[in-house]
Amino acid sequence: MKLKKFTAPTTREALQKLRAELGEDAIILSTKQTAAGTEVLAASSQDLDTVTEKPAAQSAPLSWTKAERTQLAAQDATRQPTPAEKIAQQVAAQRDVLINRAPAVHQIPQTLPEHDMISEVAKRRSQAASDSMASEQTAVLEEIKQMRQLLKDQMAMITWRDALEKNPQRGELWNQLTQSGFSPLFARTVVEKLPADLSDSQVQDWVMNVIKKNLNVVPADKDIVETGGTFALVGPTGVGKTTTTAKLAARCVVKYGADSLGLITTDSYRIGAQDQLRIYGKILGVQVYTAQTHADLAQLRNTMQRKRLILIDTVGMGQRDSRVAEQTKILTDSHVKRVLLLNATSQPETLDDVVRHYKSTGLNGAILSKLDEAIKIGGVLDVVMRHKLALHYIATGQRVPEDLFPADPRVLVHRAMRARSSQAFQASSEELKWKMAQVSATGI
């Protein structure tokens, strides 16, 4: 076997010389660095095949005896390999290693140059560094945001304390409004506009006038009975729609006669609901009709077109019931005015949610029910003012028709401001200061 050395300043140049002379199939036996550069020792694949083949002279004849074969095996076991055979063994071992590693070698991308691999690694490291930096920046920004909110709350507390020291009436008025059921936001808005240098009685007169001016109350000469038309009483279950319908019907019959009134019910879900209204209708001498579809309602309206007032008692539905939208569409398409009943005993948050869901296509006012059962009415008045609803009536009991009155702002405000919570539901002075500061900072 012919071994050849190739020397060049760099490994790349030495390999180029090797491939030029011995071809692409050449086998590299060793490489080392010398004073002249890189030295590569290699042999051609043809020479390797010659070395690995066993010489013909050593082939055992077919007629060997057992003793001759035993003697030859003993000689082969003690014979030292020649230098050429050692090189051939090393080359064969390297070839086996290359063959065994071939699948793993093929998995390495063959089209990615060395500088591209370095660039890809650099990109990944840069991306990891960027992600880490972004995460740290997010954490720092969150901490700054929390510190800013804390400072804002503390500054609001200081501002409120200064304002209360200058005008203690503001704190007392804020406490009075919130204890009466008004929202902290409404109380803050009112207190911030409180004039200075007012006596305690003047403060009460001032705040009551502010509330009265913001209540939109329908005048007595323009109420439902006086103006006439077609009205549907809507709202959640249990707010008193049927009883209020009977009260309005009685007012109309007393003033204009039974022929001036038309009564319709759409409540076919509640057991006895139609019977309840029919009992009232029988007492008043008025026939009660049932409408379950848009066609039924349109037909009844045509039949009652000469009636002065048509009242529709609707089925009670929770504000989040999917049927609310369907009911609203039927009434709107039939050109029926909708009046919302609000239960004064409900939580202000619940009332606000009720108005938002029933107000989707517009309301023609509201009626406050169960005022006789409510401890505080500031919450329901707050909701009415916030949504700018026109108040028609207030209902204060179950008697028909006695317990129904036109909405009077003076009565409502007086009733709201004199309400007081029990001791268990009252906040301490320090709690009030903290709550006032929180409302001032967050606006809630």
UniProtKB/TrEMBL annotation:
It is a peripheral membrane protein. Gene3D superfamilies: Flagellar FlhF biosynthesis protein, N domain, P-loop containing nucleotide triphosphate hydrolases. SMART domains: AAA (SM00382), SRP54 (SM00962). Residues 228-418 form the SRP54-type proteins GTP-binding domain. Belongs to the GTP-binding SRP family. Necessary for flagellar biosynthesis. May be involved in translocation of the flagellum. This is Flagellar biosynthesis protein FlhF. It comes from Limnobacter profundi. The gene is flhF.
